[in-house]
Amino acid sequence: MTRLIDVDERRARLARRHAVTPASRVTTVEDAAESMVVLHGTDPAGLFLSAWARVDGFHVKDLERALYEERSLVKHLAMRRTLFAVPRDLLPVVQAAASDRVADAERRRLAKEVTAAGFVDDGERWLADATAAAVAELAASGAMTSTELRTRVPVLDGSIEYGTGKSWAGRFAVVGRVLTCLSAAGTVVRADNQGSWGTSRPTWALMEDWLGAAVEPVPAAEARAALVARWLRTFGPGTEVDLKWWLGSTLTAVRAALRDVGAVEVDLDGRTGHVLPDDVDPVDPVDPWVALLPALDPTTMGWFERDWYLGPHKPQMFDSTGNGGAAIWVDGRIVGGWTVTPAGDVRLVLLEDVGHDARVAIDAEADRLTAWLGGTTVGVRFPAPLVREPRR
Question: Scanning 18, 65, 81, 123, which has its CA 20 to 30 A from the CA of 353?
Fold first, then answer.
């Protein structure tokens, strides 16, 4: 008989694996990334704030050490064409399971766009020449910014208009798109950051130079199974739709991976969910907990079907393209959002009455974050709609 896992148990499972109370915080940023499979890196500040929430006594230098000195975490374009901080030992799996698919799509798209825009006559040939030239220059000269690379490699110079006549029209520099293709392919990597911890001004290097070795190839089906198993261990139970979205893959590939890991079907209030075969037993409720998690945090973005932890708050917490804002969590549910004022103070916006004890705990966590920021102004790239500051 398929076991029923109700909403309360799903929240208990989430709390057991994702709660960030003082007792549950880990000791290193590497442990934090491992605990979430990967950490989201699209929002530079959000990456550090995700680590702050999960690592006991976290300092900015802890994550900078992992990213730029020890290189135990690697910023890499992967699932859903999203930037993640990936544990180094997981990089081959992520590359084969997700990044290769992204790289193929990016190459085809860019070749088509430069041809359609009249930038070149043969987009595929131009892209082959451009990527080869970029790799040769990085191999000869070492890490550099995209601006420096464009200056040194003429084939990478120029820009293309997009969305002509639309409200979102603009131009993109071809060097950035070429680097996107190469990074998704695992050929180049975002190396040192020339900006502050809350900004992204990367230099670019060959992955083999940065890590001292190329990314080892892994069979795609084997890699997908390994990544699906990690997702189920962290986010399960979940549906095929959840996995298809998170992995950025197809239902066919997801179903094959679920078979490969021996996933067990469970009933999620009428929906078929999946757990690992050693994860079928009920879990006990956990103690009350609260958390302030940043925009695009891996917990907020862990599932596609979110009603069980988001309730009616999707319009207030997610933008029109599916980016989750900085969220207030109470006992496995999102109950509001937060932002940082220009003065460096944390501003809370609750969407429901959470009770006295939870409110006291939320205020204490806001005070803890305000103290940690120490007046630092943090720009958030994906604020929740309910806390979006009015444009001046």
Answer: 18
